[in-house]
Amino acid sequence: MASAVTVLLLGCWLAGHSGVWGGREFLKPTIWVSPSRVVALGGNLTIHCEGRQRSMEFFLRKAGHPNPQVRTVPDGNVAEFPITSVGREDGGSYTCDYRSIADQNRSSHPSDPVEIIVGEPSYPKPSISLLSPSEGVSLGAAVTVQCRGQHQGMRFVLNKEGRNFRPVDSDGFQAEFSSSNVHRDLGGSYSCSYHSKSEPFNVSYPSDPVELVVRDPGLPRPSISLNSTGVTAPGANVTIRCEGQRRDVRFFLHKAGDLNPQRHMDPAGARAEFRIPSVGRQHGGSYSCSYRPRSEPFVSSLPSDTVQLVVAEPSYPKPSISLSPSWGVSLGGTVAVRCRGQHQGMRFVLNKEGRHFPPVDSDGFEAEFSSSNVHRDLGGSYSCSYHSRSEPFTVSYPSDPMELVVRDPGLPRPSISLSLTSVTASGADATIRCQGQHLDVRFFLHKAGDRNPQRHMDPAGAGAEFHIPSVGRQHGGSYLLPHPDRHRFYSHRGNRPDSAGNDDSSHPSGLRRARSEPPNWSYPSDIVQIIVAESYYPKPSISLHPSGGVALGGAVTVQCRGRHQNMRFLLYKDGNSNALQDMEPAGDLAEFPIRHVSWRDAGTYSCYYHNKWYLVTWSYPSDPVELVVAGREYPKPTIWVSPSRVVALGGSVTIRCEGWYPGVEFVLRKAGHPNPQVQTVPDGTVAEFPIPSVGREDGGSSGANLYGLEGLKPQEYSRLRALLHQYLELLGFSPAPASELPCLKENSQ
Q1: How distant, in Å, are the alpha carbons of 365, 394, 396, 522, 577 from that of 347?
Q2: pLDDT of 515 strictly over 80
Q3: What architecture is domain 223-312?
Q4: CA-CA 20 to 30 A from 70: which of 159, 326, 398, 462?
């Protein structure tokens, strides 16, 4: 008997768990509502019932209503029950079940209930937000959905298609729904609503939807780029490109501060382009992008890096930028970059490609960016801009660029020379030559007042030639250069300091820097000047007062008269490239006094004039005038031998004799030889007497020659001769006595 009871009970248990009990042998179906189980009055929804078998008859039942709705699905396993123009009477709890079409005695258990909630106009819709990054939350992380209404003490309901969440009662205005371990199934679109705890079917309208996107670190991050760099002008067209590593994905463009993705695209390949036509200030901001596999619409890659779209604000005039010191800074030195705008209380931004600097807030009109230990990486081109502190992506146009020159004291200075001398006629050709000490370099030619190098060259050797064909007034100015090697560029921005370290904007120079490194510059060369003659300034007249010769120790005045008033006049003497005197008279006549005239003052003079404010366009020179100094004799000349006065048989030497004045005849005499050598030098002050292929007859009895200077007093010559004998003895020679062998000069006129 006990055995029969046991078998009966076991059979009952098995029947209950196998679905046979009471004719119910099918598993219960799944029920859900779309788009949401919370619906506004007059809205539409659909209740879905999904069975586990095909060819079934589905029943939708509402609690408290005896008559179910019926749908026959002969070929599938899902029935749909649409409710259009929802009324209050449609709210309530629903279940569904199904039975076999062929055998109506075989049916399922009822589904879990689902509640249809009809919105109550007296309850304003709540707001919903994710307390996590708006672009998504990573797998395994925690997330909280916050719902906030406008009534206290309500019951809050979280809605997601295909999923039910336990409602949360709140004593305040809001409720939170949390998950501490996010998985893929939590991704989707959410809304929320609330109702009185005593009236569960009298509910607020649902909130706007918010998406929970689950980020999968296993998906490679995309890259992002912007076709516009720096500050973008209003009205320009911009393209943001996003590129991944797989196809069959949807790309999303995100803008910082926007709750939902800005735009999305379904490209055919692995790259999407988001175009923004006619950019306005509303488009300024920080952008990133991500992608989602089309098979998992709420599973996303991690976001890309960001790009900044900065839109220029026409009401903010571009600022000015300057460097201190302006002529460059040595390695390890200190430099300051100053940016000055036209509005007070702005935030200033310093821009350099490949480098970020913290912005500086200013209460005035300018900001300063400083570095106390300059290194090579700081060299380069800088600009700056400014914006309101509250609108970081609406910015002024950038300043003009300014280059920071980092100079390397280890790079030798280059030398510079000019093919022209004095004042150049318009239309002439000029060549500026730069010579360094390294091969494989880039030379830069700089002109004073120009912010950027005038020109540059990559020569094969250690020198460069910059040709200026048909010189015009625009070419007048001061030029300088740098010394380079192709691992060290040379260049120069700014001005050259004078001996006191002060800035002199009228002096440019040349520099060098390495091509493969950050800018690395030599110190600048010396300066050459191109001065262009202007036909608008007729040549001046020049005269001496008194007009005859002047005695040693006397006084004379050189007068220069131009054709324009209030000019700057300059006096030059042949053989000297620098102006002897300059002055700025009130009228058209300049007077240059020479007091206590000496032999050095004798010679040919000319003069020029130019506008005081435009320094590189001059008049043509005056005709020359000669100052003759009357006296009893010429000062003694200087004599020397090159390369050395000790020479091997067959070698070559040159004896040079230098006087004080041009236009004289030089005479070279050798002791014991009655016939001197004579040479006339009409335009210079040095005569050269070469002795090629030296033989024994060119030397004296000791193997060395003694050359004296004619015009010495006997005691001066004896003293000089004794000194020369002592010097020869120190060198190991035994000089024989020699008579006077003077080098003298005689007036050739």
Answers
A1: 10, 11, 11, 35, 52
A2: no
A3: Sandwich (2.60)
A4: 159
